[in-house]
Design goal:
This protein has helices at about 10-25, 295-315, and strands spanning about 35, 50, 50-55, 60-65, 75-85, 90-95, 105-115, 125-130, 135-145, 160-165, 175-180, 180, 185, 190, 205, 205-220, 230-240, 270, 275-290. By secondary structure, it is mainly beta. The strands form four sheets. Strands 3, 4, 5, 6, 7, 8, 9, 10, 11, 16, 17 and 19 form a twelve-stranded antiparallel β-sheet that branches.
């Protein structure tokens, strides 16, 4: 179980974030500035030049992560809707019909390792584990019907598979999560604060963090991705409680369109007395191609800037 008083552990975590950000910039010559993408595979849309994909607030579940122990591993399940596409200028645009007449959805599962834990248990860092579980994967789906349901945790891996990959164990990765405290004790509040409380009697410890990781592409559908891809890179905020989306009741822990098979075990206080820790995750991702492009330094620099901003916050 994580404890409180986050300030004591900030400096080493900031240094870790700096190192990973620098590695990402120096080792990213294959990162493309833009790719050509068709959001419906040529059905009702035209090709678009994009620099990334923006996901709506979704759900992440650290399965078996509690209590946190340095060196221990857990499976991080994730699912979210695509809310828009990021143009070359960094603006998020919403193609006509997205989320109303068709959906794009992301699902994944990554084996993570706890890399450090502050002495007071207030802050932890984690990374992609060097050995991934057999159920680790990332997938992106297109569906002409809008069926994904955040509260139920269903409909995120149905339709046409357009992108698939496995977690990259060689790319730079880092995650950090810090708790809120009051007079040395964890701050707890209602878990579900989005519109209606669908989890009466369930609270959560409060906190915030971020994660950066990558996935090596094993398949892409050329009707959607007009540019050949080799890797996708994610960055995501991680927060509790849930204020922009409902906590999911199920997660998909297997690739290939399997039915959701993971039920969160979060107890009566999420992050405290259950084996799992459920988080609201707001992510986006960019792409790498097999051929380096001069524009590749742009997303790398933007990614480093984000890491440095987070590091500055952690140092405060």
């Amino acid at each position: 179980m994580l404890n409180q008083n986050k300030y004591r552990a900030r400096k080493p975590f900031a240094n870790a974030l700096w190192a990973v950000g620098l590695t990402a910039m120096l080792g990213s010559s294959a990162w493309a500035g833009v790719i050509e993408f068709n959001p419906t595979g040529g059905g009702s849309s035209s090709d678009m030049t994009i620099g990334g994909i923006d996901l709506a607030p979704g759900n992440a579940l650290a399965v078996g992560a509690i209590p946190l122990t340095p060196g221990s591993t857990f499976q991080l399940d994730f699912q979210a809707n695509v809310s828009g596409l990021i143009d070359p200028g960094g603006h998020t645009v919403t193609p006509t019909g997205l989320t109303s007449s068709y959906q794009l959805t992301a699902v994944g599962s990554f084996t993570e390792v706890v890399t450090s834990l502050s002495a007071d248990g207030t802050a932890a860092t984690f990374a992609v584990a060097p050995t991934q579980g057999p159920n680790s994967f990332f997938e992106l789906y297109y569906n002409p019907a809008v069926v994904a349901n955040n509260l139920a945790g269903t409909g995120f891996n149905v339709g046409t598979l357009i992108l698939a990959g496995t977690p990259s164990i060689t790319a730079a990765s880092v995650g950090i999560f810090s708790l809120s405290s009051s007079t040395g004790a964890p701050v707890t509040t209602t878990l579900d604060q989005f519109l209606s409380n669908h989890y009466p009697g369930v609270d959560t410890i409060t906190g915030s963090g971020a994660a950066m990781l990558s996935s090596d592409v094993t398949y892409f559908n050329p009707a959607f991705f007009k540019t050949a891809l080799s890797q996708v890179s994610f960055n995501s905020s991680l927060v509790t409680p849930f204020a922009q989306v409902s906590p999911s009741g199920l997660f998909t822990g297997l690739p290939g369109g399997a039915a959701p098979n993971v039920t969160p075990n979060i107890g009566t206080i999420n992050g405290a007395n259950g084996a799992d820790f459920q988080l609201q995750a707001d992510a986006n991702f960019s792409f790498a191609t097999a051929i380096p492009e001069p524009a590749g330094i742009i997303p790398a620099s933007v990614g480093l800037l984000g890491v440095l901003c987070l590091a500055a916050w952690v140092r405060r």
